[in-house]
Amino acid sequence: MRFFLFAFVSLMVLLSPAVQAQVDDRTAGSQPKADEAPKDTEDTYRQLNLFGDVFERVRAQYVEPVTDEKLVETAIQGMLSSLDPHSSYLDADDFQDMQVQTRGEFGGLGIEVTMENGFVKVVSPIDDTPADKAGVQAGDFITHLDGEPVMGLSLSEAVEKMRGKVGSTLKITVVREGVDESFDIDIVRDIIKIESVKNRVEDGDVGYIRITTFNQNTMPGLLKAVKDIKAEAGDKIIGYILDLRNNPGGLLDQAIAVSDAFLDKGEIVSTRGRTENDTKRDNATPGDLIDGKPMIILVNGGSASASEIVSGALQDHRRGIVIGTQTFGKGSVQTIIPLPGHGAMRLTTARYYTPSGRSIQAEGITPDIIVEQAKIEQLANMRRMSEKDLRGALINDSKVKSKVKALLEEEAEKQGKDGDKEGDEEEKPADYQLDRAKDLLRGVVLYGDKVQQQVKK
Questions:
Q1: How far apart (Å, rounded) are the C-alpha atoms in residues 328 and 248?
Q2: Do 408 and 391 form a contact (C-beta atoms < 8 A)?
Q3: Nearest one of 64, 121, 107, 206 to 406, comparing CA atoms
Q4: What does the longest C-alpha to C-alpha distance in the chain come to?
C-alpha cells in the first residue's frame, strides 16, 4: 500500500514541471507557479489513502482483471473531465492525433464534437469533409455508431469508435432539433485535409474570405487569400466579408494573428488565469492587410473559441460589422501539458476577454445585426446548443446567469428514408446570411461615399 501511494503522489508531482504546449487555445511558456500550499496537508493525504484503498479493492476483487495502467488513466480522466467540459486526459494516441490535427491534416469523419446528456454532440462539421458532404449539421446529437449506443461511453471512447480505416463506412444515428424522428447517415471515412482558408470574389467587387478553423496554416492562408482576391479584382474590390460561421476555433496565436491583420492598434484579447503565466494581453501592430476597406464578419452558433476572439476584437474596435446569430460562447483557454511517456493533459487554465473587457464564457458574441438563416421554421422552433448548455461549463464571472439545460427528448423510432420533393429542395437553401452581408457592405460603402461628398462640398 505505501509503495502504491508513493507512486501515485509521484505521478501527481510529474504534472507540474511538464513543458506546456499549445493546442486549442494557448501556449504557456514556462512552469506554472503553485497558487498556494494546501492548507490541510493531512486531509490531502487522507484523501489519497481513500483513493489507494479503492484502487486496491478494485484490482483485487473486480469481476475481471483490470490493469493498473487502465485504472490510473481512468481515474485521471475522471478527475479532469469533472472540472469542465474541455479539460481531459489524452493518452499517447490521442495526444499524437491532436498534434496532427493542429497541423491541418488527420484521418476521420471531419466533425468537431463534444459530449452532452450522454450523447455525442456535433459542434461543427468541417467544410468539404465526409461528414459535411453527408449532411451532418452543427447541433446534431449522435446517439448510435453502427447501431451501438454511445450512452455510457466517454467522449474519447466515442471518438475512437468513429475512427477507422480510410474508405470504410460508419453509420451514425442522429437526433436533430426540429426533426421529430431520429435518422441514419452513412459516412465514408477519409483522410481529412483541412484547407483552413478559402476565398473568392463575389459579384465582381466583394472579397469573400472563409476561415474554417484556426490551425498552423491559417495566417499564411489568409495572406494568400487577400493576395489572390486583389490579383483577380484589383481596384474593383469595395470591401470584404470574413465568414467565421461553423468555425469551432483552434490555435490562439493564429486567432491573434488574424485579428492583428485587420487592426492597426489596440488590444486584441486578454487572458486571465490563476498564475502569472496564464495572464497576459496581446496588442495589435501597425498595418491593415486590406488597407482600411470596410468589413462584414459572419458568425453563427457554430462559431466558437478562436473565431469568437476574432469577431469580438473586430467588433469592439468597430473595425467591422458582425452579423448572423449568437455565437457558441466558449471563452476559456486550454493548455496542453505533455506527460512524458503518458500522453498529455488538457487543462483549462484561464478565461479570455475581448478588448472592452467582455467575458464571452457561456454568453457568446452578440452580432451587431441579427440575421437568421433562410429556413423560416427555425425561427420559431429551434434553439442551438451552446457552451452554457454543456455539463460542468464554467460560469461567466462577469455576469452570473442561471444555467439553461437543454432537455433532449427520448429517441423516437427511425424514420423512413422516403421524403417528399419539397423537403429535398430545402436541403440546400440559398445562403441568406451571405446575401444580407453583401447588401450591408454595399450600403456601408454607399453611405461612406455620400459622407465624403458632403465633406468636399
A1: 9
A2: no
A3: 121
A4: 90
The helix/strand/coil state of 147 is: coil
Show the domains of the chain with their CATH numbers.
Answer: 2-35+42-95 (no CATH), 107-193 (2.30.42.10), 197-332+351-408+429-449 (3.90.226.10)
Copy the grid coordinates of residue 450: 455620400
Q: What is the pTM of this model?
A: 0.73
| Tens of pLDDT, residue by residue, the chain (457 residues) | 433 333 333 333 333 323 333 344 443 333 444 455 555 788 999 999 999 999 999 999 999 999 999 999 999 999 999 999 899 999 888 888 788 777 766 668 988 888 887 889 998 888 888 999 999 999 999 999 999 999 988 887 888 888 777 889 999 999 998 899 999 999 999 987 778 999 999 999 999 999 999 999 999 999 999 999 999 999 999 999 999 999 999 999 999 999 999 999 999 999 999 998 889 999 999 999 999 999 999 999 999 999 999 999 999 999 999 999 999 999 999 999 999 888 999 999 999 999 999 999 999 999 999 999 875 444 344 456 677 767 677 777 654 333 333 434 444 343 344 444 444 444 446 899 999 999 999 999 998 876 666 656 5
The contacts found for 279-285 with CB under 8 angstroms, 24 or more apart, are 279/350, 282/256, 284/259, 284/260, 285/260
Q: Annotated catalytic sites, by residue?
A: 305, 316, 330
Nearest to 327 by CA among 296, 298, 358: 298
Q: Pick from 381, 338, 447, 456: which is nearest to 139 by CA?
A: 381
Q: Within a 10 A sphere around the Cβ of 380, how many other Cβ atoms?
A: 7
CA distance 152 to 301: 27
Amino acid 140 reads D
Hey, what's the cell of 40? Answer: 490541510
Cβ pair 204, 187 in contact under 8 A: no
What does each C-alpha distance from 419 to 174, 382, 423, 424, 427 come to in angstroms?
17, 21, 6, 7, 11
